Amino acid sequence: xxxxxxxxxxxxxxKLKNSKQxxxxxxxxxxxxxxxxxxxxxxxxxxxxxxxxxxLICEPxxxxxxxxxxxxxxxxxxxSLYRDNPWISFMREKxxxxxxxxxxxxxxxxxxxxxxxxxxxxxxxxxNMRTLILEGDKDFKAALRAFKNQDVFxxxxxxxxxxxxxxxxxxxxxxxxxKNICLTAYSNDFELLFSDKLSxxxxxxxxxxxxIYKFMMKIYKE
Length: 222
Description:
By secondary structure, the protein is of the alpha+beta class. The chain has a single domain, classed as Protein of unknown function DUF1054 (BirA Bifunctional Protein, domain 2), CATH 3.30.930. 45% of the residues lie in helices and 12% in strands. It is built from 9 helices and 5 strands, in the order αααβββααβαβααα. The chain has a 5-stranded antiparallel beta sheet. Helix 1 crosses helix 3, helix 3 packs parallel to helix 8 and helix 5 packs antiparallel against helix 9.
């Protein structure tokens, strides 16, 4: 079954109640309206994701390609027990790689948030990215063409307050002056979110940025 208004209603109320007892009493609602739709979404996207990178983990399981709804509050000032923005993600095996870029799609009462990038790129990866850009790397040129030929995703990620490359073009500065790099898109089209066409939309959009993902993998350094 697709994601539905009942999925978002559960997420909102579960976050509001902030109670293990309430969650335990309504766990079947979580399974029916949240976990199973996300499992189906991962399964539907798997052929596309493996086409992009056959080493991506595509397992429709919580703790694999599906985020846990229970929050880890040990290092957070926010001590709420549950998240209202569960996500799916596709990245290579964490045990073999550290800090890789990933594709992701997150649902919440606010709508859909999705994209591709680093959660927190290493300093070495970002330095490598700048070196390759300045050298005119062919894979960066392919990534830049892909970025310019689409209008779905924005280039995001924390940027330096000071422009370190004033002699470069604006489009290169947009990449060179970042501490982290990600492509993100937002949608509050709930008709799409609740439809069985969501996986087709995500697959189409993820393929648009395949060359950018490949460049992100090229710059990767632990």
